[in-house]
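Listing S7. Sequence submitted for prediction.
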Amino acid sequence: MPGAAAFLAMLAGCATFSDTIRSTERNLAQQQPKLALVEYEKLTPSSADRVLYLMNRGMLLRIAGDYEQSTHELEGAKKLIDTLRAVSLSEQALSFAVNDSAQSFIGADFEQVMLHAYLALNYLEQRKLDAARVEALQADVLLRQIAPGSLIRPYAEDAFTRYLTGIVFEDEQEWSDAMIAYRKAYEAYQGQLKRFGVTVPETLKHDLIRLADRMGLTQEAERYRESFGIRDTLGAEALLDRGEIILTVHAGLAPEKREHGITVINPNTGRLLRLALPRYHSRGHPFAYARVSVETQSATSSLVANIDAIAIKSLEARMPAITARALARMIAKDSVAKAAASGDSGSGGQALAGLAVNIAAVLTERADTRSWFTLPGEIHLARLSLPPGRYRGRIEFHGHSGAVLQSSEFQVELGKGEKRYMSRHWIPTNLEVRP
């Protein structure tokens, strides 16, 4: 029993992974993504946190503009998740005895889907359309695996990833697959409006009409026109004669997962009891929309993903199971402390052994606050078609009052039928970092 107490006490000295990232968040808020990356790379992740480390490092590299290395890290996370999906019995036992953080992190369902989405975006930025298509197919497989839980989980479909998949398929001129993906995105946005607060994007409405027309689905196209109140839209053949800018803006940071715990004295035994549970804390941000302008033409972005809401609702759905595990663990730890206090040693030794185990049990009871914290809080998307040519354009980020928060210029050359994908990350200077 003293050996067990020493083991628990040793684990108690280990802070959770999320406790070590304050400086990274501060540098992001100061618009210094490369410094944020330097700070983050000072960490030495445990084997249980390796996937999380790769996810966050991959996103930080992406924010810093290094898409190639970002892809390498995110691909590493994806492969490691595949290896860890079958959780070992020893890990399950350790998480029950110590805390949930003892298990290897592989991400919540939405984080795993976002991994495929960001790999696809990285490949699109690198103009590797076939590789992006592979990610779209893998995301579809994962979403099919998640779907059976739709009756008990708020997140069983991902509207943005379906939409992105449709864009990739359309770029590949795989019209039927693109239409299927756009339909699934449309259904997902309709079904998730109340849960995640994201309406059907304006661009998707035009995409559905265009593809329905292209495939000769006259009645379906007319239903979309009547439902959306849209009579005129650029046809598929006309779009193939033009180039197109597809801009995604990744605004803010995902909500921060914090620990909420309570420690009380059992009045019957005098021993300490502790219950610690995770809870997301939304950071919020003033970003409302982006506008991309080229000469006299412009396009305004639509909100396509509310990761903040997805994360919060997903955790709420898992809380009954998390709470049940924590309560069972609390009872089990108290039983171990009771057994230590009534061991074979003298009464003084028994008391000390029981106290040591009780204190170690309380100190090791930590909520699992690990999350892919470098994900954005929201994703916005805009599409702007232009005749082939070389252009100088401007991107503006606007707040909810309409004021310009930030602006930048870009140059782009578009060929006939060519799509150019652009990503911009925006993190407010007043970002609320973890305490």
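Caption to Listing S7: primary sequence and predicted structure tokens for the chain studied. Residues 1-16 have pLDDT under 50 and may be disordered. The first strand starts at residue 243 and ends at 251.
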